[in-house]
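Forum: Protein Structure Q&A
Topic: Joint prediction for protein chains with partners

I've read a bunch of threads here and the consensus seems to be that you should model interacting components together rather than docking separate models afterwards. I'd like to see that in practice. Below is the full input, 293 residues plus whatever partners are listed. Could one of the regulars post the assembled result?
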Amino acid sequence: MKELHYQPNRIARGLVSRRTSTIGLLIPDVANPFFSEMARGVEDAAIAKGYSVLLCNSDWNPEREQMYIELLKGRWVDGIVVVGSRSQASAIEASVGDTPLVIVDRRSSEFKWSVWTDNCQGAVLAVEHLLAMGCTNIVHIAGPNDSPSAQERRKGYEQAMSRAGLAGKVYEGDFRFASGFHIATMILEGSERPDGIFAANDLMAIGALQAAAKLGIEVPRDVAVVGYDNIPTAGYVSPSLTTIEQPSYEMGASAFELLFEQLTDDSVQGVRKAKFEPRLVVRHSSVKKRSSE
Ligand code: RIB
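Posted by a regular:
Agreed with the consensus. Here's the joint model:
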């Protein structure tokens, strides 16, 4: 076999066994480190069990997502992990059909096999932290209205604000740097400048830090900023970004483990879910110094 440089042909093997030891992984934004960390988690766990991963990027586009699901099924993948989708649960389940599926970043009640964090609770942690830092005029740069995680974070923001007896203001972004930058520029230039910004992800929060720097507004003295995800970059921007951590690598690894269970354990009854807890990571963008300091 060595002399002839023999390479086993996965497709030929798959024809016999009806298994390809390959899974599909569909993420919404390959440029967002939250999803690339998660993809690493899926891939490392898959390789450890002898599987390969076909990575697809939907670019937040539901049509492209459907197109990739069809393509993956055509390649005979053994199972599919779908991350952070904005499509309806029923649409994803219908197009995936009988192929084993794990959904990540969507609430458990919608999907059978799923991995997620409590987005509402994460947003409450963010707002309560800003309140504890003395902020009284906190605005929310939300994710897209049709994103379930964005909706839950917005709900958490509104709950925490109303418990504190404060009225809030929500601006819809799209989970990318530029929307955080443009929305924050507009808000910070306005007549009612907020003293706190809670952005629904780190990319938009980093955009907001850039907007403040460009306008000569000091963070956190004039406005405190909190993001969401804890991407690796959050610790390296200036000032370093306070954020709500979702353990993206571990969530990815756990998604593969759930898929593996479906693929290999015929005795599995019912469904499995893995819920992770959001965690506040305090850095310099939110901790206001007292006047005596
Ligand atoms: O950064 C992208 C965001 O969209 C993440 O917070 C993730 O939870 C997703 O829904």
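The pocket of alpha-D-ribofuranose is lined by residues 32, 34, 84, 105, 143, 147, 149, 175, 201, 228-229 (CB under 6 Å).
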